Amino acid sequence: MALRRRAELFGPAEPYHFVFASCKPKFNGTIPICGWRTAWRRLTRTVCCSDCGRAENPGVQCVRCEADISEVRSPLHGLRFHDLRHHAITELAESGASEQTIKAMAGHVSERMLKRYSHIRLEAKRLAMQGLSAKGYATNHATKTQEQPVAPAATH
Q1: Residue-range domain boundaries for the chain
Q2: Which among 20, 31, 62, 146 could bridge 67 via Cys, Cβ 3.0 to 4.6 Å?
Q3: Distance between CA atoms of 84 and 123, rounded to whole angstroms?
């Protein structure tokens, strides 16, 4: 739904239009974009004019209302495609999916890469610790016992 609303910023969005449509020489929803790299750049660099709301390539002026858009950044600026893979694998790991499931879904993930991708976020660690404390485990003195007096050695 969000992609449809975004597409409507460029003009009419019909069911037969491509999600990643060509913008050369101008937007045409019936022609697909050249390739994934072009589509990704378009997705992560498109800005919305703060005056009229029109989505367009970054530049100095809005094409429609001529407002200054030189300082406007895309909300997805800097997002790499690889970041989505990393996030998905982390979410799978945090949801309790088995390592075999994660490997099957992610493709060529080795044991080493699985550990790198599936790092557990600090929030997940904090919740795990709260779960332990809710069960009544004390963390300060659970393994310490009071020192027992040493009995004197028996002499014969």
Answers
A1: 2-44, 81-119
A2: 62
A3: 19
C-alpha dihedral (76, 126, 88, 109), degrees to nearest 10: 130
What is the Cα–Cα distance from 30 to 11, expressed in whole angstroms?
12
- pLDDT exceeds cutoff 70 at 135: no
Distance CA 114, CA 36 (A): 26
pLDDT band at 9 (very low <50, low <70, confident <90, very high): confident
Coil, strand, or helix at residue 15? coil
For residue 69, what pLDDT band results from cuts at 50, 70 and 90? very high
* Whether the Cβ atoms of residue 49 and residue 58 lie closer than 8 Å to each other: no
What digits encode the pLDDT tens for the residues 137-154?
A: 555 555 555 555 555 655
